[in-house]
Design goal:
heterodimer; A: about 450 residues; alpha/beta; 15 strands; B: about 130 residues; alpha+beta; three-stranded antiparallel β-sheet; 4 helices
């Protein structure tokens, strides 16, 4: 029940247990030049010179036309979102830790949770996590705790990088991870689930952009007592059936697509929303609404008793922070767009991707239409994908992701479009591709 | 501070009361007061073997989660399922309705536990 600081005696007894006589001896294996390295810093600059230097560096940034996807995308963010989220009251050096005095942040987080719950169709959202991949791994651990089983199934439709993070987390805990291949329609098929499986994890839309039959996967998982974890792009949930409606016990993913800039790969935030019965297993914390002693509406951090800063060894996860600022940015973005605005953006993104696919086909390329796709799809190339991407990059077009060899699709690109992709960008891509990898030319 | 002398106590604030080889366990009035509003109780499984001093249950209040230690060796014979829906019983009635679990012990050795007076001293020091 007590907070226990590290006392001089604690340090001494830890050293005794290790067999070191002092902290210095403990660090003696580390070469001296690494312990106290000399850092060569340039002379300081005055403000005018500094701004000049930063401008010069910034001018070297390229902003190519991009058809990159793979889970993260550049979407429209109304300027009000950035202006409100970056008010100094919200910009803290660390996750705000005197929560009850930060009513504004708590209220914003409460609204974030409410929106995530509405988008996913599940009742209980935490206050955000580091990123999509670690949220998926935490969801797998949650399933292991809940079911007492130690095997997890993930389909190959889940982003390869997410699966790597999952494998790192589970491997360290000796939890077996099995990967299921995609079927001929490039979607997941789960025939039967063994009764020692804690969770089945599938992604919607899957890594290749295709729509999975999530209902069937969920019911097969449930038939054996496993939980069903849906990895969902929250932007897609403006149009697609929410995970709660097809039987997902947990919805997780990366929140970048609902209101964060790409930031060259981060920071973003992860989200996790679960069914009522899993509330005690949820990592992180929840902001709740209550009334203060005078009966006024107030917000508090609640259900945080299993966090690392209180519970230490018995914490539900090592995640003791949320990604407050990035989640706040998404919250304000969603509030500004509203449900209709989000739907319009998603509809426009899907239309842009399908138009691009049509245009590629008209130019002679083979687009894989094995299953219906959302805002990304696979196009086969008559030339090596990697060198095609490199040559297009040199001409200012980020062509897409080369499809990893594990999907056995040959030379192929994963291409995506959003509501921000212009007609000109699409045409430029198709014609640039025609120059670099013309149809009809042997590999 | 209500510390009845019809049972024995752990330094870690559990009480234990033996009757016919069955030891009923809960937390003291002092402990429930220190925790504040109890919002959740994680109970052990019936049939689970436990050792004295081993953490077997968890009590969560709004701000913290505390382990509950078994006072004697034995096997969990019964748990207070009412606590799943009404964890506040621990605050309202720590010595009666708020009991947590019963351990069946072949020979319940309670000699290592504190009597009410010794426990009062521990509680006063911790408060």
């Amino acid at each position: 029940m007590k907070y226990t600081p590290q006392t001089v005696e604690d340090v001494a007894s830890a050293l005794r247990a290790i067999g070191a006589s002092s902290v210095n001896e403990l660090f003696s294996q580390i070469p001296e030049e690494l312990l106290d390295p000399e850092i060569e810093l340039a002379e300081g600059l005055d403000e005018v010179a500094l701004l000049d230097r930063v401008r010069e560096l910034a001018s070297r940034n390229a902003s190519p036309s991009t058809l990159l996807g793979g889970g993260l995308k550049k979407h429209f963010i109304p300027s009000v979102a950035k202006h409100l989220a970056f008010q100094s009251e919200f910009v803290t050096a660390y996750t705000p830790y005197q929560p009850e005095v930060s009513q504004g942040i708590l209220q914003a987080t409460f609204e974030y949770q409410t929106m995530m719950s509405e988008l996913t169709g599940l009742p209980v959202s935490n206050a955000s996590m580091y990123d999509g991949a670690s949220a998926v791994a935490e969801a797998a651990l949650l399933a292991v705790r809940q079911t007492g089983r130690e095997r997890v199934i993930v389909t190959r439709g889940v982003h390869p990088e997410t699966r790597e993070v999952l494998s790192t987390y589970l491997g360290a805990l000796d939890i077996e991870l099995s990967t299921l291949d995609l079927d001929e329609r490039l979607t997941s098929r789960v025939e039967a689930v063994a009764d020692d499986v804690a969770a089945v994890i599938a992604q919607q839309p899957n890594f290749l952009g295709y729509l999975e039959q999530m209902d069937g996967l969920a019911s097969r998982a449930h038939a054996s007592g496993a939980l069903f974890i849906a990895v969902a792009d929250p932007f897609s949930l403006a149009l697609l059936k929410p995970p709660g409606e097809y039987g997902a016990d947990v919805a997780v993913g990366d929140g970048q697509t609902i209101g964060n800039p790409l930031n060259f790969g981060g920071p973003h935030f992860g989200y996790m929303v679960v069914s009522d019965s899993l509330i005690r297993q949820l990592p992180g914390r929840i902001v709740g609404q209550t009334t203060d002693a005078d009966g006024r509406r107030a917000f508090v951090l609640t259900l945080q008793a299993r966090e690392q800063h209180i519970r230490r060894a018995r914490a539900k996860s090592n995640i003791c922070s949320n990604h407050q600022l990035t989640a706040l940015l998404a919250t304000i973005n969603l509030a500004a767009l509203g449900p209709q605005g989000l739907k319009q953006a998603a509809t426009a993104a899907v239309a842009a991707a399908h138009t691009l696919a049509d245009e590629l086909e008209a130019a002679g390329y083979r687009v894989r239409r094995d299953a219906r796709f959302f805002d990304e799809f696979v196009v086969e190339l008559p030339a090596p994908a990697r060198s095609t991407v490199e040559r297009l990059a040199a001409s200012g077009v980020q062509a897409g992701l080369t499809v990893p060899a594990e999907y056995r699709l040959g030379e192929a690109l994963l291409v995506g479009a959003t509501e921000l992709t212009t007609d000109g960008e699409r045409r430029e891509f198709v014609s640039a591709l025609g120059r670099v990898a013309p149809v009809g030319v042997a590999r | 501070m209500n510390i009845p002398d019809d049972r024995r106590y752990n330094k870690t604030h559990e009480w234990a009361q033996e009757a016919d080889g069955m030891v009923t366990v809960g937390i003291s009035d002092f402990a429930q007061d220190q925790l504040g509003d109890v919002v959740f109780v994680e109970l052990p499984n019936v049939g689970q073997a436990v050792k004295a001093g081993e953490a077997v249950a968890v009590v969560e209040s709004v701000k913290t989660a505390s382990d509950i230690y078994a006072p004697v060796d034995g096997e969990v014979a019964e748990v207070n399922e009412l606590l799943e829906s009404k964890p506040e019983l621990i605050n309202e009635s720590p010595y009666a309705e708020g009991w947590m679990f019963r351990i069946s012990a072949a020979s319940a050795d309670m000699s290592g536990l504190l009597d009410a007076d010794s426990y009062r001293a521990v509680a006063e020091e911790d408060s």
